[in-house]
Amino acid sequence: MRHVAIVGSGPAGYYTAETLQKADDIAVDVIDRLPVPYGLIRTGVAPDHQSIKAVSRRYEGVALTDNVRFVGHVAVGTDVTIDELVALYDAVILATGAPNDRPLDIPGADLPGVIGSAAFVGWYNGHPDFAGLNPPLDAPGVAVIGNGNVALDVARILAKTPAEFAGSDIVAHARDALGASAVRHIHILGRRGPHQIAMTPKELGELGHLERASPRVDPADLPPEGDDALLEPGMRKSVTHLRSFVANPVAKPVTIDFDFFAMPIAIEGEGRVQRVIVERTTLDADLRSHGTGETYAIDAGLVISCIGYQTPPIPGVPYEHGRGRFASDDGRILPGLYAVGWARRGPSGTIGTNKPDGARIGEMVLEDIGRGAGKAGRAGLDTLLASRDIIPVTFRDWRRIEEAEVKAALDGNPREKFTSIEAMLEAIGR
Length: 430
Ligand code: NAP
What we know:
By secondary structure, this protein is of the alpha/beta class. Helices cover 30% and strands 21% of the residues.
């Protein structure tokens, strides 16, 4: 029997498990610090994007196979160390994602009311780490920094009416706070231009169909239309959406302004954020942005920085600081230790990108470990955890938690998520 531990039960973890479990004589443990599985599917993908979240059914199929086990509520690093796992398993695969925000390194970034997208997204998705965030939604202006899909998610969630959350799994504290929000002017700040956005067409197009909010683009920021022909097709579609926001302006009470060539250089306020100082930029021949010296201010009571994520380092595990991910040779970190998904390649691509990634790392691991070295594997982990009085949450336990969440759902929503670890454990009688 060969034994593999996957740390992290998100998309990269389960896609890797899917490949591994097809092999014979293998036992795969998927370990997560939360009592609930699926990582970004549960707490990252926007609650109004249920069709993307539906992929969790596929992971459930993997989790329910005989040779895959969910080991929830076990924190690698505190409950058990990486070295202990490497000693117990033929291979340990880090699928820990990139849950930390890249720091916004400008003066005033530490003012109250300046929040990273990991925290804001975690808050509306009920991540236990961020349930108590309580973002200030009492001022009309919000600045969303970044021109990626996370910036779009954040702007859309801020702009939606309670009715537009029907059928979503947004948590009650966020639904209520957003329903009472004073936010009226959302600025999405991109330090480069419309041809340099990292937004995909479907997600960008959604902004054109909001009940009470309309997107606005300054036509002066758009390059000549003929230049769009040089773009790859997805990007061209995205830019077409930006052009349609110019061509079909709609007056609605909430505005979502795309501020292009706009680099935040400082955040100011008395005791909390009140405004963002933005410097206009131009691009050089390599499409890098440079400040022009011309500045303006945006009134904002909340600033959400959506400028990408990084993987938290683990002591003793080689790490690439510049890229915010584990240092690996295409997935191999050290003998017996691997990385997959965002922990390997950094925070890029969609959920689906993790499928070929997981398959490839799974196959690489199978090749490396051969028939296994007769390690203790899951029995060894069970003994170690029992010696520390740690009782893992099983997949069966998770299904009871999920049942309770589905039962608590309101108004045709799929579920009302528990937002604390205590409540999750209480649902299984602990
Ligand atoms: P992203 O796609 O890498 O975008 C980050 C944005 O932040 C870029 O526009 C970047 O601009 C900007 N930025 C970086 N540093 C900055 C700074 N110091 N000041 C101002 N702007 C800065 O990251 P993301 O939006 O966090 O998304 C992460 C991944 O998840 C992406 O692959 C995304 O597509 C995916 N995702 C997908 C969906 C979906 O499919 N529905 C939803 C959410 C996320 P520059 O280009 O100038 O560096």
